[in-house]
Design brief:
Blueprint: H1 7-16, H2 21-28, H3 32-39, H4 48-58, E1 78-80, H5 88-108, H6 127-140, H7 152-158, E2 162-165, E3 175-178, E4 184-187, H8 194-210, H9 219-233, H10 236-243, H11 250-260, H12 264-273, H13 279-292, H14 309-316, H15 325-332, H16 336-343, H17 362-368
């Protein structure tokens, strides 16, 4: 533990709670200027009672604030799906949450061997290059290009990408990804569409492959990631062959949806991108989908394979390894409530067995006093 207060950790904890410096100052009876000095590292030895107040309000034990941040999630490392519509405060909150999960994973790596990161990096500039990049990734991961991917999340986790669900609580963000020492995809399950979750994972995979070290969130990079996801999930030759086997219509579209585990909207867009349907048919199809309300939820949603790496590691604590959930929480200096909010896993409460009450006679009790 460092002897100096780490202002970056205070900022992470504050942003995780969605508070401004002014709001935190009100909670701990300090001025916003003092909070700012602490976060900026200009106040290396704040009063003990102030640090305790920070911890009580934010949900961390005081020692949490006296460690360096080895792997912070920086803005230029992160991609947000629907980034243009995402408030800056929400993006900061998600990055802070991701950093806290990174702390958890760093401790878990001391007792578990996680898959080695194995994500290709491919530069592209044209639609044809994106198609080839997606096909290259499928071959790189041993998937081939002749059929659907059964569990796209498992493919990414086997490649060393940790997928975390139920973190984003706003419909303003579909998904989030970051490439770094901890490479991670946050998936938003507030939006109840499994086909959308599957596409979002493939979309974030596109950012990890195509845009490493680049600023994302503009129309060009989002369009490239969407094209990559479509190409990755529906390889052009196999998909085109199956699309042309029957007359274009909703029974055929939903049959393709069941087989390829993607949305009807993604199927129609893929068919248009590949020149399998024209612009008029494409527009009329989406007009009908809007009329049916399918833009808010489609029928025949596919099953979804829940992410496994983090969940499996946490569920193994105290059984496969000596480290327990409670000990991990203590090592991190998270409160049990904070640990649950960060990971989605609750710290088990220890039930104390009632002791045996020995009834003493008057003489014996007098003697014991």
């Amino acid at each position: 533990m460092s002897e100096f207060f780490c202002g970056e950790r205070l900022q992470i904890a504050r942003e995780f709670r969605g508070l401004t410096q002014k709001q935190l100052g009100v909670e701990v009876a300090a001025s916003p200027a003092l909070v700012s000095l602490c976060e900026a590292g200009k106040k290396k030895d704040p009063a003990v009672d102030l640090v305790e107040a920070f911890g009580a309000v934010l949900g961390f034990e005081p020692p949490f604030f006296y460690r360096r941040v080895e792997d912070p999630f920086r803005e230029d490392e992160c991609s947000f799906r629907h980034r243009r519509a995402t408030p800056e405060r929400l993006k900061s909150q998600i990055r802070a949450h991701a950093t806290l999960i990174g702390f958890v994973l760093d401790n878990l790596r001391l007792v578990f061997s996680f898959p080695t990161l194995n994500v290709p990096q491919i530069a592209v500039s044209t639609a044809e290059e994106i198609e080839l990049a997606a096909e290259s990734c499928r071959w790189h991961w041993g998937l081939g290009t002749d059929g659907p991917i059964l569990h796209v999340g498992r493919v990414l986790e086997h490649a060393g990408v940790v997928i975390v669900t139920d973190v984003v609580k706003s419909a303003k963000v579909d998904a989030f990804s970051r490439f770094g020492r901890t490479t991670i995809i946050f998936l938003n399950q507030v939006i109840p569409s499994t086909s959308r979750w599957i596409f979002d994972i493939a979309h974030e995979c596109g950012h990890l492959v195509l845009h490493r070290g680049l600023q994302t969130g503009d129309l060009e990079t989002e369009g490239q990631a969407n094209r990559f996801a479509s190409s990755f999930l529906m390889p052009r030759k196999a998909f085109g062959r199956e699309f042309g086997m029957k007359e274009f219509g909703w029974p055929h579209i939903f049959d393709l949806k069941k087989r390829w585990s993607v949305s009807a909207a993604a199927i129609v867009k893929r068919a248009y991108d590949l020149g399998l349907i024209g612009a008029v048919q494409y527009r009329r199809t989406f007009q009908y989908m809007s009329f049916k309300g399918w833009n808010k939820g489609e029928p025949y949603e596919p099953t979804f394979q829940a992410p496994e790496i983090l969940r499996s590691a946490l569920s193994s604590l105290g059984t496969s390894v000596e480290l327990s959930l409670s000990t991990l929480c203590q090592q991190l200096h998270y409160s049990p409530i904070t640990f649950h909010e960060v990971t989605g896993v609750s710290i088990p409460t220890v039930k104390v067995k009632p002791g045996i009450v020995i009834q003493l006679g008057q003489k014996d009790r007098s003697r014991s006093l």
